Amino acid sequence: MSTAVVVEAPGRHRLVPHEPRQPEAGEALVRVHASGICGSDRELYQGNRPEGYVRYPLTPGHEWSGTVEAVGAGVPSTLVGRKVVGEGFRNCQVCDRCHAGETTLCTAGYEETGFTQPGAMATTLTLPARLLHVLPDDCDLTAAALLEPAACIAAAALKANARPGERVAVVGTGTLGMFAVQFLKAGSPAELLVVGTRPDRAGMSRDFGATDFRTKDAEKGALPDDFDVVIETAGSADAARTAAALLRRGGRLVLTGIPAPGADGLDPTDLVVRQLEVHTVFGAPPDAWAHTVRVFGAGLLDPLPLVTHELPLAEFPHAIELVGSGDPKVGKVLLRPSLP
Questions:
Q1: CA-derived radius of gyration, the chain
Q2: What range(s) does the Enoyl reductase (ER) domain occupy (predicted)?
C-alpha cells in the first residue's frame, strides 16, 4: 500500500495512505527509492525551524533519490524510467537572482520540497521536472539519496575554488564534512587536513583522502595557521572561529553550517587585517547540483559508507531519534518507502 509520513504540527505525525498525484504540465512523478534525514528534518519535527521556513501539515523529505514513472505535458517522455535526484528550492525563475543562477536567493520568497511543499517521505513525489537531475543508469540509488547534502558542499567547493597543490582543510566530521573531504581531494591538494571533535572519524577521513586528522579539543594551540582554503561544516560559532584560525593571510573560508541565532561570530578586525575571503552557503544552486551529479557519475564521490541505517516509513519517529542521539555509530539515516 502506498503511504506517506505527515507531520501535522511539531511533535505530531501520522502515517497516512498516499495517493500519487498525477503530473500536470511541466511536472514529473517520481517513485521514491530513499529519503534521507538531516538535522533540519529534526528541527521540523520538534518545531525549531525558523518562522517562514516550514508550513504544517506537510510530508517531509528534501534529500531523496528515485525513478521517474510519469511526466506531464511539455516534459520529454525520455525521462520516464530514468534514475533521478532533484533540487529542493522551488525558485520563481524570473527574478533577478534566478536569472543570475543564484536560485537559492530567489526574491519571490522561500519555497522548498519537504519544508513548505510535499516532500519525499512517501511512496511517490510529484514536482517540477525542471528540478530533476538525471543519474547514470547503473548508479546506486541508495548512495544517490545523499546527493542533496553533497550538492550543498559542492556549492562550497565551487566557491572555495581550491587549486591543485593548495593546502586545504575541513572543519567538521559529519556527513557534510566527509563530502567536503571528497570534493577537495578531487582537486589534487598538497595537503588535506580534517579537524573535528570525534576521533572515530579519523579512519573514514583518511579513507576519503585526508592526509592528516586533528581532534580540535586535544590540540588547542597546536593547530596550523597557514592553509589556503578551509571549508567549515560543523554548524557552530566555535567551528567557524577554528576554521578562520587555520587560514594563512589572504586565505579563503567557506561557512556551510548554521549556528544558533545570536552566536558570537568571527572577529571583523581579524578578517580585515588578515584579508580573509569569506563565503557562505545555504542550499545548492543548479550549477552545484550539476557538478555533484558529474562527480558522482565519475566515481569520485562515494556516499554509501556514510549510510548506517535504512528504515521503513513507519519508523519515522525512531529515525528522528537516531539522528539526534549523538551516537557515533549513527551516520546517515534513510527512510525506504519500499521496506515493510
A1: 20
A2: 11-335
